Every structure is written in structure tokens, then in C-alpha cells.
Amino acid sequence: MMSKVLIVGSGLVGCLLAVLLHKRGHAVTLCERRADPRRAGYVGGRSINLALSDRGLLALRMAGLADDVAAVSIPLPGRLVHGANQQTSFFNYGLNGEAIHSVSRGGLNIRLLDIIDSLGIDIRYEHRCHEVRLAVNEADFVDASGAVHTLHGDVILGCDGAYSAVRGALQKTDRFEYSQSYLPHGYKELAIEAGPDGSARLDRNALHIWPRQSYMLIALPNLDNSFTCTLFFPFEGEPSFASLQAVDDAEAFFARVFPSAHALMPDFREQWNNNPVSSLITVRCEPWGATTANGQVLLLGDAAHAIVPFFGQGMNAGFEDARVLASLLDEHGQDWSVASKEFQRMRKPHADAIATLALDNFVEMRDLVQDPTFQLKKRIEAAVARACPGQFVPSYTMVTFRPDLSYATALARARAQDVILQQLMGHPSVVADPTSAAHEALYRTMAASLPPLQPDMR
Amino acid sequence: MMSKVLIVGSGLVGCLLAVLLHKRGHAVTLCERRADPRRAGYVGGRSINLALSDRGLLALRMAGLADDVAAVSIPLPGRLVHGANQQTSFFNYGLNGEAIHSVSRGGLNIRLLDIIDSLGIDIRYEHRCHEVRLAVNEADFVDASGAVHTLHGDVILGCDGAYSAVRGALQKTDRFEYSQSYLPHGYKELAIEAGPDGSARLDRNALHIWPRQSYMLIALPNLDNSFTCTLFFPFEGEPSFASLQAVDDAEAFFARVFPSAHALMPDFREQWNNNPVSSLITVRCEPWGATTANGQVLLLGDAAHAIVPFFGQGMNAGFEDARVLASLLDEHGQDWSVASKEFQRMRKPHADAIATLALDNFVEMRDLVQDPTFQLKKRIEAAVARACPGQFVPSYTMVTFRPDLSYATALARARAQDVILQQLMGHPSVVADPTSAAHEALYRTMAASLPPLQPDMR
Question: pTM here?
């Protein structure tokens, strides 16, 4: 069954989905609010760099795009933590050298739009979705001149992000569960340019993090040897964006708490004044779609489940949505009514789980990474994981490098494993030397108390 | 400081607020989406009967309207429970004969509109709020002909209910916390008319309740000796509105589980077919307002905190909002910027508390009222309360008859008292005879472990 599919939003998820559906014979039209970024310059959304990991890669591979993306990404095998005392320490992300991949949102989006064009997929820029009429599966788009274009789709897919217009239409229907919640922290981007000789001024093989308890700075490398930094900082209180309105105060503060980063930003004052402060939203809703007399409406990615960026999973979760939906369509003979129902049933618990994991990881990144108790727990976690491969898997690994495990399984398993870690932290001999071979039998016995860890994603 | 106040919505809260503000010298304009109900007939919102209790009465008294309302209400000193075995039992609401008051939403609204007119307050019907421009304190209203009327207020008050248009404008601002959630139960109204001789066919001095665990029927008396019944029933599952689509099935079911009510509804089939099923929303949001360059925008009542009806507090909480805002204005020399900030700070925790209490009370009404353990606990609660007046106060009493205690205090105190009740249910002699004078010393000792119960509302 070939369907006419109208995708609202040509961001990362919309583009990937367009490719996957086009390859399955559906007639795809993409509508994008902004102008073509290759002509107009990329104007974001959030231009924050993204960490592509295995869930995202698996989805790109399904679309045949993994090589295209590898060409524009930089592998990061670990975090380089910049302590308050100016010492740095490196922490691997995985036990076996696994890496996440730094990509620029704009660069990746443009690469995907090139592919959309090469496949001849219909795409319309400067089409802002103004209204979706669910009952008749139609949407009105307003162009730059103010003219209204009405388009119909057997299927309308809302890939239009955290402030989705398609979700706005669903929200007006009865019994739509919805919540939006913001962190008390906002973020501001800052850049570290390449050195005068074009070389990188920080190690390019790591995600850099300056954790400072109630706030933090991170930096991810770009292909041109610059780094995109993001300061996650309270809106109100002391210190906060509100308390550092004056650029003199801001610079004095920044130089004091992040001296190593400040030294690499000669244009700090300009950047602080020019770059906006953005907020961090979590959106939960249900249902993600509607079956109408004329077809289907369905939300994917941030439109269905916007999350905070602290697990680096926003894009990965959206790409996984696209992969799962394509798999379900294949399984059910491209029958959208079955696939979209099944999609919502399967994906909603995983979206809720990664939202929780992402909120929890903010605490880990800014508070705990520096904390000796936390570091001990991570060493014990690694030691138990080495003794019990496949049975005791660090939570970061499950979320980031194990796309065969769902987010919900990763969250539940992480909580069960945490109970074991808490118990082990009460063993003085384990605390004294977590990696001693003498503890392996204990580790294996305790890990064996958990049920086998079964892959649950297809 | 006299202000130009634009009130959106002339429902119960909007009308009461208009009277309170008019009497304080503010220039009030009321805009209402619907036509004048005295000319057009009252077409609801929810025409569900309302239970006015002491918080609402205190606010009406402040406005000088308590007598007007007493004339159109019927006092109910307790619940009459209709068991599955056709037996009935009566439970007083208070220990000292306190009563709640059955009023018709439509009748009360019309009484308030008469008063609005008698005071010469400017009111505009068929003015649907289409857009609120926060930055300039203006709102556009669309009339029946489609014409747009733009009105300005130094203060714009959103009293426009659970689906508030004013809240819609606030929701588009950054960092607005918002959630809407629905119960899996809906409701359908049914009527029991007066008998052929004009007499009431049920006892008029009680709120009637037919609790049936997963669902329930209630009935409240009207001035004309009819009763308004409401069936709270699951949307899906077995049994549910979905499973009883056919009126034959519905009638067979209703006659079986509510025979005493069914016998009083000769027109059951017509009513079942004609009356819609409505949903039950809880809305939480923050902030409730905005300070703009040109003044204030503020939400009150359901627009700020829509709750489910199971504690009979929706209207009472909205009236209490109006009373508290008027008090704060008096306290701060009619300075809206101070009063509206203080109002939000004070009221938000109480709105959250009554939302929780209302959801909890649904379980009590449909599941527990019939349960012997629950009935025992209520008997012990009453006995402890008699032994310790002012120190141990039943939760229903705190919420309903003690407007000097905030909802948040009522919720916290109810939870602390519940721990004591749980302990007492482990004493065999208490269980055997809760009202024995022999237990009074024990009751007093246990109640004395709680801090004194201090009034915290002004």
C-alpha cells in the first residue's frame, strides 16, 4: 500500500524519515518552516552540537546514510573532565573503546537535505504550518508572502520539534494528556575558535566538561578544529544569568571559575552579549497520533517527546523512532493504521524512560562527576561489568551503545544494578580495591541475582 | 489606585470578582463568550450541580451576596449511600450538623448576572476571546457576526475556565510550566424529575451516592424537587461507556446495578441517548500571570487550576481565589502589581493541594464508602475528633467547613492524622468499640503528638 505522506518539518528526524519512506515507495512531501539553509545560512533551532551514538547510527544505516554522516562527525571515546583545581582527568565512555560522535546539527541537516534532493523528494521551504485539520487530514502552510497552501496527506507526520504545530492540533482534541516542564537552568553557546595555525586548542578526541555542581560548561569539537561550548547555568539566583547581566561581571566570573576555557575565548565579551540564553524543555504527551476518517496523523521525535540534552539522546531517540516506524511498516505490509498504533504502544514507555534518564544525567554531569563517592561507584560499576559481561552493563553503555536494549529496559536495569552497587559500596575490601580479582566471584554472584539481560528491541 | 480591569469570562468566578472589584472602585468590563443566558437559555459548560460550602460562602459574604445565594440553594447535611444490596445508610458531613449546599450552576450564574446588571457593571456577551497580546495588555474578542473588538485593560483577568484562552497566551511564553491530565472516567448527566404531585422522589436533605467500586452515580436536589444525577463511569473497558453504546445494553445494565435510581427514570433511554459524555480534566500551570510593560495579566479559578469535582471544591476554590485577591488588593492599597505576585505565591500550593485531594476523594467515594474497613476508620476518626476538638479535625471538615485553614494545611494535616488512624486500627479494643469513653485518654495523647492546628488563611 503506497501512501501520500506529508511530513511537517525537515529537521533531522523529518529528513531521515523522508528517506526511509521514499525508499518504501511512499509519495513523500516535506514542508519546512525555514528557508533552505544551503541558500539562507543555517539559522538553528538550537545549533548546539549533537552526540550521535549507536541508536542513531543504526537508523542511519537502515537508510543507507551511515557513511554520509561518518564523513561529517568526530569520534569521542570519552569525557575529559576539567576540575576546579585545573587538573584534568579522562573517562572512557565504554569498556571497549566505544565512542560517541560529535556532529554539528546544521552540518548534518544540510547533508541530509542534499540526499533528499538527490532522491528527488518533494520539499517545500518557507512553509510554516499554520493549522492541521485532523478530520480531513489537511494542513495549511503559510509562505513568506503570507499566501496559504493547503496540502493533504493520507498520513501527516509531525516532525516539527518541541513546539510542534501538529501536536497543537492534537492538543485540542478531548482527553489529550500533555505536560511541558522547564529546567531552572538555561544555556548559552560560546565558541572556542581554532588556533592561529588552524590547530585545535583542546583535545579533539573528547567531550570536554567543566562540572561546577550547580552549573557546568561543556565543549564538543567541530570539523574545522573549533569547539562549540555550552554553558548550562541557572536562570535566577546566585550565580545566574540574571545575576551576571553586566558583561564585566560575567567575564570576571567566567575567568574565575573556567580559567582554562576563558583563556581560549579572546572574544568572550562579544559572545556573551550576542548569544541568547535558551531554555530546556521536557514534553510528555499521549496519544502521539490520531486515526481519522481519512488516514493517520502521527508525531515523532521532539514533537512527541522533547527531552533535555544531558544524555545526548534527543536526536538518537528521534532517529530510533524513524527506524522503528519503518520496521513496523515493513512488518505490516506498509499498513499505516496498524503500524502507527503499534508504534505508539511500543515507543511511549521508551520515550518516558529516556526523558527520566536525561533529567537524571544532568545531576550526574554537573554534580557528581567530580564527587569522590561517585567516582568510586563508577570504578566498582566498571569492575563488576568486566567480571559479568552481558549481565551487568553500565547504564551509560546500555543507553548509548546497546540499541538492542530499549530505553525502558536500560532504565529499569540501571535501577536494579544500582541496588547492587550500593550494597558493594558497603564492603570495605571492595571500596579499598574495586578491581581486585579477589572480588570477581562476589560480583558474579550478585549480578546473577538479576534476571538475564535480554535484548528487547528489533 | 483605580484600575481598568478586563475580566474574560462571566462564569461564577468572573461574576463574583467583578462585584468585588467594582465595589473597590475599579472600572470593570466583563466579556463573555456565550449569549446572555437569561435570554438564550443556559447552555452550560457543565450543568452538573454544585456543592457550595464554607469557603465559597465566605467569599460571597465578602461581596454581600450570601443571602442572594442562600435563596437558591438547598442545605445537605450528609450523604445517603445506596448500597448494592438496596440498603441505604446516612452519613453526616460534619460532627455538628454542618451542611453543604446544592446549587444549580445555571441558576447561580443567572442570579450573579442580575446583580452585575443592578450594579451597572459593563458586560458584553457573545465576545469570544480570540487572542490576548500580553505585551500591550490587549485582547481581541470576536462577536457573533465575526467582527473583532479590541479591548485594553490595565489588568486582564482570565476567569475563562479549564480551556482558558488567556492561559493559552501565557502558555506561549518561555518557561511556562503546564500539564493537563484526564481521568479514565467520563460523566453523563441524567435527571430524576419530581413526582406527579410535584414532590421529591428522593430525600432532598442529602447528597445521594450509589458507589459501585469502579464507578458511581450521584444525585443532588434542585429547587423544583427534581434531582440532577451524574454517572461517573469508565470510558473504556468492561463495563464502560464504550461497552454500553447500545441503549438496550445500557438500560439493562443500569436497571441491574442502580435499580432504585432506574425506577425513578421512566425516560432513561431518551436521556442516555441524548446526553453527552464529558471528560474530567485536571490542569496545573505556573506562573498564573505575567507582569507586562502595561500592567498585569492573571488567571483565577479553573483557568489556573481546573480540578475534578469529587471534593465539591472547584467553585469554592475559585471563589476563595476571588476573596484572597480582593483582600490582598485592600492590604496593598489596590496595587495590582504587588497583589497579583503575592496572590500567585500564596495560592499555587493550595491549588495543587485541592487538586490532589479531589483526585483522592474519587477513590473514597466510589470504592471506599461501602468498604467495612473504611467505615470503621471513619468511625474512629469521628471518635478521635470528638475527643480532641480543634486538634484532630476530619479531613472532610477541614476542606469543607474550615475556610480558616488552607487546602495545603488540610492536606498535610489529613496525612499526619491518617498515620494516627492507621495506628489506632491496630488496637483491638478501639476496633471493637471506637466510641467507648475508655479510649479518650489514648485519643488525646496521640492527637497531642501533632503540632497545634493553626489557622493560616486570612
Answer: 0.90
